[in-house]
Amino acid sequence: MDEYVGMEFQDVLDRRRMVRGYTNDPIDPEALERIVVAGVRAPSAGFSQGQSFVVVTDPERRSRIAELAGEPTYLEAGFDPWISRAQALVVLCTSENRYRERYGEPDKTRHHDGTWPVPWWWVDAGAAMQNVLLAAVDEGLAAGFLGIQAIDGLADLLGIPDDVSPVGVITIGHPAPDRRSGSLDRGRRETVHWEQW
Ligand SMILES: Cc1cc2nc3c(=O)[nH]c(=O)nc-3n(C[C@H](O)[C@H](O)[C@H](O)COP(=O)(O)O)c2cc1C
User: Fold this and answer.
1) Cα–Cα–Cα angle for 95, 100, 106, nearest 5°?
2) Given Cys at both, which of 1, 91, 96, 119 links 54, Cβ 3.0 to 4.6 Å?
3) Global confidence as pTM
4) How would CATH label the architecture of 33-45+61-135+149-176?
């Protein structure tokens, strides 16, 4: 196995994009482990650690997830079979219950009224997702994200408990030339405001 070297952080940021095309080359298991650990290391409100990760590498199970995710609709749109071909699928999950439990502990109830103007379990899932995406790039791999809205039956397939919500599937593999999403043609909006909106 190659020794882990990693990239300059700015290069990782510049290279990161959602990739929907992969080769069939296997992923170094140690690299995959580092990528998942990066997700685990993401921040969480109150250190609730409500995020969990189901790492799927078995080809049959990957195909089954691709089927549930409606991969043929991507093929019809001119994309590669990126879900089944990605050598690893990381199903990102979050648990609201875990936050409710954590914020019910004495050090939290002192200054928390048990309501969340912003649901931290979704916020923290986003942070975990980004850590995984960036760590994949850092390993010379590429990654994509598939929202859960289109994946009925995933929780049953993977035995995910009732109080844990799958958020989406992170696809990871060696990048192949892929088709850019049409969404990107819309260009970048001005979203930064200095000093005042
Ligand atoms: C929360 C979230 C859900 C997404 N869901 C999907 C999806 O279901 N299918 C897909 O092909 N891309 C999905 N994407 C990828 C976006 O389309 C992509 O991030 C966006 O077009 C910007 O492209 P870039 O990430 O390559 O810069 C999702 C991205 C995010 C952050």
Assistant:
1) 140
2) 91
3) 0.95
4) 3-Layer(aba) Sandwich (3.40)
